[in-house]
Amino acid sequence: MATRTTAEHRSLGFLQIAIALQTAALFFQAATAGLLLSTSYGEVLHSVGARVMYAASMLYVLAAILAWRPGGGTARPILHASGFLALASVQVVLGVAHIPAFHVPLGVLMFGLSVLALGQVLSARPSGRSGTRP
Fold first, then answer.
1. What is the tens place of the pLDDT at every residue in 16-68?
2. Residue closest to 116 by CA, chosen among 93, 70, 83
3. Angstrom distance (rounded) from CA 119 to CA 103
4. What is the value of pTM for the model shown?
5. DSSP for the chain?
6. Residues 31, 107, 23, 65, Cα dihedral to 10°
7. CA 4 from chain center: how many Å?
8. Distance set, CA 131 to CA 8, 78, 123, 124 (Å)
9. Distance in angstroms (rounded) separating the CA atoms of residues 87 and 58
10. What is the pLDDT of residue 129?
11. Residue 79 CB: number of other CB atoms within 10 A?
12. pLDDT of residue 60
């Protein structure tokens, strides 16, 4: 039982790190979007940030799968992570196609969703921890 709780705790920690990285990457993208409009090096930073954000979205899917396996609970986090990866894919296509009318609002939506997911996972506790102090 202790091993299972430890595995759940590690998986939850990995999930927290993955979502925090994704949220930070999205915040970086917002900052570099402003630089994109005002400096010559903004495009390079935004392009590199896009790759990091996409990799962070893939890491989020992996972390959600790993967090689901030990507990055998609901697969909802995997669906959320997969949906986010789909949004990231659309975001990349819109950015490459230079369609800011949809690219920018989708980026804002993705950042908001990522902050919400981070809040949820930070407030979550592994199952089997009854009787612990708050």
1. 999 999 999 999 999 999 998 899 999 999 999 999 999 999 999 999 998 88
2. 83
3. 24
4. 0.82
5. -HHHHHHHHHHHHHHHHHHHHHHHHHHHHHHHHHHHHH-SSHHHHHHHHHHHHHHHHHHHHHHHHHHHHHHT--SHHHHHHHHHHHHHHHHHHHHHTT-HHHHHHHHHHHHHHHHHHHHHHHH---TT-TT---
6. -150
7. 25
8. 17, 29, 17, 16
9. 12
10. 46
11. 11
12. 95
Contact 60, 79 (CB under 8 A): no
**Dihedrals phi, psi of 129, to nearest 5 degrees:** -110, 40
Nearest to 19 by CA among 67, 51, 74: 67
Quick: pLDDT tens for 74-120.
Answer: 788 899 999 999 999 999 999 999 999 999 999 999 999 999 999 99
Give residues with Cβ within 8 angstroms of 46, minimum separation 6.
29, 32, 33, 35, 36
**CA-to-CA distance for 70 and 85, rounded, in angstroms?**
23
| Mean pLDDT score across all residues of the chain | 86
Q: Which two tokens stand for residue 86?
A: 């789909």
With contact defined as beta carbons under 8 Å apart, do 118 and 19 qualify? yes
